[in-house]
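Supplementary Note 3. Input sequence used for the single-chain structure prediction.
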Amino acid sequence: MKRIALVTGANRGIGFEICRQLGLAGCTVVLTARDAERGARALRLLREEGLDAHFQALDVTDPAGARQVAGFVAGELGRLDALVNNAAVAIDPEDSLVTVDLAVMRRTLETNLVGVLNCCQAFLPIMKQQGYGRIVNVSSGRGSFSKLAAGGPCYRISKTALNALTVILADELKETNVLVNAMTPGWVRTRLGGLKAPRSTAEGAETAVWLAMLPDDGPRGKFFRDREEFPW
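The predicted structure, written as discrete structure tokens, is reproduced below.
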């Protein structure tokens, strides 16, 4: 049976590469992005490689939009095996919590935390009904308590909160075959990471793809980098 995987924020960077690797692994991929034009362009690139891919416009902060995409997946594809919550923003300067713009904090949390919860609530019913699912939350080492420090507080806090969401949701689903985990791609050469980053998008995406295709006895409620556990 062909697996169906949906990736948020996937028109470029790590999200696009996750789609690509999942497609190469034989999955049908649903690429989502806020911008329909950029999403359609990314879809064409996947299909040019012969991959089985679809595009759906999705703003992860919009509950109605997420439910609409869930309806498409259930109605047109019949199932959803993996949800990769990749969409995120990093819009705060290297600022101090004492002076940070609260509007920036709210927007960051709305996308990086509440947006993930919104997608989980929209797509989990499909997974529960079929008795199978994998949820992968793309986090960051900057959100690990072992790495917390000054600089970029909105982004850091949003990813720390995402890690907490991962652990709680995994525990809520511990009696099901829906495995929930988080991963950090490391410092990757993307628009966010910059050209000096040492890792390629392929390297950054690989662990997310592995987690999206875990066997039934795979880990749950864990944080990974390069398929190895990473400190919360």
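Strands lie at 4-7, 28-33, 53-57, 82-85, 133-138, 178-183, 223-225, 228-229. Residues 84 and 172 are 18 Å apart (CA to CA).
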